[in-house]
Amino acid sequence: MKYLEEFQNPELARRLLDDIRATVTRPWALMEVCGGQTHTIIRHGIDQLLPDEVELIHGPGCPVCVTPLEVIDKALEIASRPEVLFCSFGDMLRVPGTDRDLFRVRAEGGDVRVVYSPLDALRLAQQNPGREVVFFGIGFETTAPPNAMTVYQAKKLGIRNFSMLVSHVRVPPAIEAIMRSPDCRVQGFLAAGHVCSVMGVGEYPELAERHRVPIVVTGFEPLDILEGVRRAVRQLECGAHTVENAYPRAVRPEGNPAAQAMLADVFEVTDRAWRGIGVIPDSGWRLSERYREFDAEQRFAVGGIQTREPAACRAGEVLQGLLKPHECEAFGTTCTPRTPLGATMVSSEGACAAYYLYRRLDLPQVRIAAPAGVEASSVV
Ligand code: SF4
Predict the structure, then answer these.
(1) Closest residue CA from atom 8 of ligand 1
(2) Judgement on whether residues 225 and 341 belong to the same structural domain of the protein
(3) Which domain, by its residues, includes 322?
(4) What is the mean pLDDT of residues 217-243?
(5) How many domains does the chain have?
């Protein structure tokens, strides 16, 4: 399959690994920003195939994981109301709030529906004029444009029984916050390619310069990840810190101007709390004044929410790259995908879910024979 199998070619992977091994002379720590990249890395054992000098640190780029507990609890409260038809992508349904999740709300009689597009929710609003239809709009720069377009359409078509619970986040302020942390070990970034396909690369040169870190825009297939690592290591070894686009088949330098215009019209930048991390200045979007009538938080006046994170969950440290999932004491014992304590265990892009799904269950590392065609490396 074009653009898929050709980016999983073992022979090309071996060549990229050889190049990285030939280049690296000392330890480097790189952060892959996106949870989709984390899943590719863990699924294909890329971190184990890399030379010991190259460490991959998993970043906060999982939209479900960083949605604040307060917003989850607001979603649960809104979805419980009898007049509400609450629409969400499927991966939000198992995300634990303070004392329940959306599945529980549905089991208790709430009308919670899984949709595949925000426009499906808008259609439900048209089909159910007597109901209040709410869409749970979360995510990074990738999901924000279609959500913005849906609110734009709702206004244009005069659909008043539609609203959106918005919790959008932006990547560049998160990179800034990570680099400013006193515990930061990150020396280079694999930026999220799909985010850059929307926003372009213009936000990154200043970050790379200010923090003297290479930022390589990277895709999501195994060869994409290896090429991103190869370019970042090359820069680090020669003391460079520039922005490179290693995902040109999807990313243009200017991004998608039409999507950016839609975002600028419907949303405005705001401070946003990230679950387990805290408030990051200018790291989110909310509906702009022109579209505020579609804000579900205002329409349903969900205030006074008291949240309570499970004390055992260390997802905040996982999301900042300070802890590997299987270093959490609850991992695989009291916290599993069936009994999640944190969102990182249930999201399809969560690091804890990746470690559980691909059986990275134990801390000790042993050296075993690698599959044919791939050079030996450290594997669990
Ligand atoms: S393993 Fe579970 S408890 Fe531990 S950080 Fe991950 S989600 Fe939280």
Answers:
(1) 313
(2) no
(3) 315-366
(4) 98
(5) 2
